[in-house]
């Protein structure tokens, strides 16, 4: 018998090669690259066809500037993690925020993933999982019980990712996105 009988004809196999990314804590020197990445990933995740371009651009003007990023990097309640490609480009990031749990988590020592984004070109290569695992490791090291986040109810890809990572919905709230009021789900994961 030949090798062709080892796998049925209707099953395909896929070899996925993971690119080695470095994940580290962001510094003030990363402010420009981090701002550029935040703007780009905001457009990719929430721009057309998901939202009108003018709504996204107005939000970007309000929320993302190099000065704003510098202030956030200096905030002792926040930590940014950046993912650096082998070509030394910032291709993903996460922002952890301490001491702001939603009412459903009151009384629990909880830390928020306020942002977790990777470039569309990097989705599917394990980078999001690697960033999430780094967030979990940091939460564990800092003694947190729960990791939580908010995700737009229409962002099915992100919701699916968070569910695969073990997060469960624990509530919701409205998020003001420009002139539009959108609903975000709160999701949580026990830190073990």
TrEMBL record:
Residues 37-192 form the N-acetyltransferase domain. Coiled coil: none annotated. InterPro entries: Acyl_CoA_acyltransferase (IPR016181), Bact_Acetyltransf (IPR050832), GNAT_dom (IPR000182). The keyword Zinc-finger does not apply. Keywords: Acyltransferase, Transferase. It holds the Pfam family Acetyltransf_1. GO terms for molecular function: acyltransferase activity, transferring groups other than amino-acyl groups. PANTHER family: AMINOALKYLPHOSPHONATE N-ACETYLTRANSFERASE-RELATED-RELATED. This is GNAT family N-acetyltransferase. The lineage of its organism: Bacteria, Pseudomonadati, Bacteroidota, Cytophagia, Cytophagales.
């Amino acid at each position: 018998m030949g090798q062709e009988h080892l796998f049925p004809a209707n099953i395909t196999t896929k070899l996925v090669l993971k690119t080695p990314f470095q994940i580290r804590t962001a510094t003030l020197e990363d402010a420009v690259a981090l701002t550029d990445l935040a703007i780009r990933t905001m457009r990719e995740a929430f721009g057309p066809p998901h939202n009108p371009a003018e709504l996204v651009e107005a939000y970007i003007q309000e929320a993302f500037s190099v000065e704003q990023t510098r202030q956030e990097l200096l905030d002792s309640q926040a930590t940014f993690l950046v993912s650096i490609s082998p070509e030394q480009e910032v291709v993903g990031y996460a922002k952890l925020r301490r001491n702001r749990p939603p009412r459903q988590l009151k009384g629990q020592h909880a830390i928020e993933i306020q942002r977790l984004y990777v470039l569309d070109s990097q989705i599917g290569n394990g980078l999001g999982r690697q960033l999430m695992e780094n967030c979990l490791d940091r939460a564990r090291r800092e003694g947190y019980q729960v990791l939580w986040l908010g995700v737009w109810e229409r962002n099915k890809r992100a919701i699916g990712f968070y569910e695969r990572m073990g997060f469960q919905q624990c509530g919701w709230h409205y998020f003001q996105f420009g002139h539009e009021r959108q609903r975000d789900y709160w999701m949580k994961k026990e830190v073990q």
